[in-house]
Amino acid sequence: MTDLPSELMIKLNRETAKIDWQALQRFYAQGAVLVVAPELDLVASAVAVAEDNSQYIAELLAKGLLQKADENHAQQWLAEQTEVWAVVVAPWVLVQRERKPSPQ
Fold it and tell me: In angstroms, how far is CA 15 from the centroid of its own chain?
């Protein structure tokens, strides 16, 4: 196995950008926003969703590391005019408020 990033990972990394939470309200209203925990890599999580890695996704959901955006997220982030990192893996938009740096 290689540690080189896959073509999909490279593609999703290029499509990842910061965006105001307010701009994502339409997707939140459709129930299409997944919040990625700060300790996870947003792009790696997006790859797992894109590749339908259901076992890994189920583990993340069970641990609360991946969850559908809820009203608490929406209200707080809107009030704080939060900017999030986002990447689209249709039909989902994966968002992450900020990523915690990896321990050295």
Answer: 12
CB-CB contact of 84 with 96 (8 Å) = yes
Tens-place pLDDT, residues 11-28 = 999 999 999 999 999 999
Residues 6+ apart with CB under 8 A from 55: none
d(C-alpha 27, C-alpha 50), whole Å: 18
**CA separation (Å) from 57 to 14, 50, 63, 85, 99?**
22, 11, 10, 19, 19
pLDDT digits (tens, 9 = 90+) for 44-83: 999 999 999 999 999 999 999 999 999 999 999 999 999 9
